[in-house]
Amino acid sequence: MLGEKKQLMVARDLYTDPTFPASDTSIFFDYCTPLAQFRGEISWLRPKDICSSPRLFSNNLEDVQVKQGILGDCWFLCACVALQKSKYLLNKVIPPGQPSWTDESYQGCFMCRVWQFGHWVEVTIDDRLPCLGGKLCFSQCQTEDLFWLPLLEKAYAKVHGSYEQLWAGQVADALVDLTGGIAERWTLKDPGKNVEKEKTGMVLEKAVFRRLMNLKEQCVISCSVLNSRRGASELGEFHAFIVIDTLNLSEVSGKEIFLLRIRNPWGRRCWQGPWCEGGQGWNQLDPVVASELLSQIQEGEFWVDEDEFFREFDEITMGFPVNEEGQLQSLYTEKVLYHSQNLFGSWVRGQSAGGCRNNSSFPTNPKFWLRVCESSEVCIALLQKHRKYSTDWAGRIQNPTRLAEENPSFTEGIQRKHYQAVGLHVWKVEKKRFNLPKTLSAPPVVGPGKSSVKVTLRQHCLDSKCCPIGFHIFQVPNSSWKPQTTSFVHLEPLVSCVPHCYSQEVSRLCRLPPGSYVIIPSTYLPNTEGNFTVVIATKIDRKRIHSQETLGQVLQEVSFTTVMKRWDIPQVSSKYTGVEKVKARI
Q: Which of 40, 135, 340, 395 to pair with 320, CA 20 to 30 A apart?
């Protein structure tokens, strides 16, 4: 009887996804990444063909370590750690109760959820996975018979159109997609006294850094190397890591030593520094303590001290904690942000696409009105939809087969994903009626700071042929100084515009003191040919904004209590909500 059941399971046709087939069309987009060298060599296997007893998860925490393959999606893998820290998020992204490979009801398909534009979107895939030589070639768990990670990666690649579209990205974007929450980025490099800092305080001070590290058990902490230096010399640039643990050894060492345990998604040790295995840093500790700490690290992990961390790493990204009820917690106060609201709008050419503050049409941009009735913490996040998506994309993608039949260009729309440079400003107004042009001409209380130099790098290409581009700005001693080939290897740039997506144009606003500068544009990959234009706009004197727009009739205020009752949410003290009355107008 058992033999007959096994034969029936083998004979049964397993699900094959027609919208994300097991072919090169699902792997590649335009063959512009190093992945292109494997064209024609990647095969597709189901987990039961890769190992004898495939599993989705393991109860052993040491088995869940993520490991990067030949795909450059370290940014996505870092965000996946959020699912290991929250049972709520894990069940939200990978719903429990799905048939396993040993179940008679197993049909060869899985369903995942990804947060897209304010909604959890269901993504169904088959379990065929890209392989080289019979083994997974993209992401996998450290224990090779676990398959939740490669299956989730496939679902995420399907949302983006192909695996190659996952090459290079921002940890913050993936954190939003996997948590439905908010992520925040800081730079670890102080630009100096002569360079204006953003008013949002994005340079992370060490005192704030220590406090944020206390949240390591509740949320993902990722750190990135944008410019290769001593410790990460073998890694190159644009690589993301995960902060696993922190340890203050001041009491046991008698001196100020604060260590961080870092994990490299590559899954192998390739860090050179004083606290690597055999490094000089361990001489400062008792041999027994040093041996204990070294024994804790797994393959791909290493220790660094705080000074080395700030010296070697460039950025840190953190996702807001999400509790088991699915509510966001503040990174700054750790209080639950009970009251949240999504407000949808659009930029429409000739109506509400006003551009930046340097344009006279700026007042036509969408406006949202917020009333805060007591000292509160308010978090505002702006998320843009891709221009090629329809307004109901999130709802329609749940049936991708039907959608592809109705609109053959749907898949192409996903793959040609380019984003606008966007931002938001917040002004404080004292009255319900006020002079709009005068208000918008004044500096905002929140938003990008005033800048005197705008540098834009534009590559000459078709949309489908764009490469990731960026630039660095270095200050030089004087205008007669002649740069050498290796002049900038050991220098810190004053300004960096780091590529993270395939865009035809990138730009950066900054304030530079009088002096001589060198602007170095670059592509993400070496040996990549192309033409480009660098545009430098200086002394941007913003003219006074003139607008005929008026606010019109004042919108009726909706009290916090009324909103809470209408949504059937238990009323809570406004001490934790931050916002009591909200008005909105687009």
A: 395
> Which residues are CB-neighbours of 201 under 8 A, at least 6 positions away?
none
The pairing of strands 532-538 and 453-459 is antiparallel
Tens of pLDDT, residues 419-442: 677 888 888 887 767 777 777 777
Any domain includes 255: yes
The three-class DSSP label of residue 43 is strand
Could you tell me the two tokens for 206? Answer: 């060490």
Exposed (0-12), middle (13-18) or buried (19+): which is 227, by Cβ within 10 Å? Answer: buried
pTM: 0.72
Following DSSP, what letter does each residue of 380-425 receive, concatenated? ----PPPTTS-TTHHHHTTSHHHHHHH-TTHHHHHHS---------
What is the per-residue pLDDT for 261?
93
Q: Are residues 22 and 71 in the same domain?
A: yes
How confident is the model at residue 15, as a pLDDT?
94
Q: Select from 113, 202, 226, 204 the least CA-distant residue to 159.
A: 113
- Local structure of 505: helix, strand or coil: strand
Instruction: Dump the DSSP string for 231-256.
Output: TTTTT-SSEEEEEEEEEE-HHHHSS-
pLDDT(583) > 80: no
Task: Say if 553 falls within a structural domain.
Answer: no
Q: How far apart are CA 475 and CA 491, in angstroms?
A: 9
Which of 319, 349, 380 delimits the end of a domain?
A: 319
What whole-number distance in Å separates Cα of residue 380 and Cα of residue 106?
43
Q: What is the CATH number of the domain that holds 252?
A: 3.90.70.10
What is 91-120 written as a DSSP string? HHHS-S----TTSTT--SEEEEEEEETTEE
Residue 186, classed as helix, strand or coil, is strand
Q: How many CA atoms lie within 13 A of 294 on its CB side?
A: 16
Please report, for the domain that includes residue 525, its CATH number.
Answer: 2.60.120.380
Measured at the alpha carbon of residue 92, what is the angle toward residues 382 and 48, in degrees to the nearest 5? 125
Is residue 87 domain-resident?
yes
b vs e for 51-83, b when ≥16 Cβ sit within 10 Å of the residue's Cβ? beebbbbeeeeeebbbbbbbbbbbbbbbbbbbb
Give the type of residue at 211: R
Print the domain residue range for 501: 452-539
Q: Catalytic site residues?
A: 74, 239, 264
- Domain count for the chain, please give it: 3
Instruction: Enter the DSSP assignment of 155.
Output: H
Same domain, 207 and 139: no
State the DSSP string of 313-344.
Answer: --EEEEEPPB-TTS-BB-TTT--B--------
Higher pLDDT, 526 or 45: 45
522 and 534 share one domain: yes
Residues 76 and 157 in one domain: yes
The span from the first CA to the last CA of the chain, in angstroms, equals 66
In a domain, 208, yes or no: yes
Paired sense of beta strands 505-510 and 558-559, if any: unpaired
